[in-house]
Amino acid sequence: EEALRRGVPEGVRVVSYNVLVDQFCDTDWPRKNLYGHCDPRWLSVDYRIALIGRELQGYDAGILCLQEVEGRICTELLSPWLDLLGMDCWYESKGEKATWGSAVCWKREWFECVEKTLVQYGDSDEWART
Fold it and tell me: Distance between CA atoms of 68 and 99, rounded to whole angstroms?
């Protein structure tokens, strides 16, 4: 009933997307060994985030699950952009030493976060090293 009152359609699109943390594509080793076929300009975080933003907007998701998101990118680029799309977002890093993590975002007119529970798998120090 609450969903109907909020105007949530019967089918809600949920999108899961790997943003690809910057250090995994914008350093020498990945550029040479994984993405040697890519122009380095295409691997820059500013270029990729702009494209990712347009692509995610096109999905018109009610819920977004984002992986490999750098905290700085989430705070400075993604969160303000998602806010313009009417979405709220919860970001958590992979561990105390990690600079990246995951984010769950939702359309605020359809959903309200009433509780958050962080579930971590494995050793968080191990995650920070990977």
Answer: 9
Give the span between the Cα atoms of 107 and 86, in whole angstroms: 6
User: In sequence order, which ranges of the chain are alpha helices (DSSP H)?
Assistant: 2-6, 28-33, 40-43, 45-59, 71-73, 79-84, 124-129
Distance separating alpha carbons of residues 109 and 100, to the nearest angstrom: 28
Q: Report CA-CA distances (Å) from 95 to 6, 67, 87, 124.
A: 35, 14, 25, 5
Identify the CA nearest to 94 among candidates 65, 56, 130.
Answer: 130
For residues 44 and 46, give the distance between their C-alpha atoms in angstroms, rounded to a whole number: 6
Each residue of 48-103: pLDDT tens digit?
888 888 999 999 999 999 998 998 888 888 888 899 999 999 999 887 788 889 99
The tokens 């007119």 sit on which residue? 109
Using a cut of 0.70, tell me whether the model's pTM lies above it: yes
Rounded-to-integer distance, Cα 87 and Cα 106, Å: 5
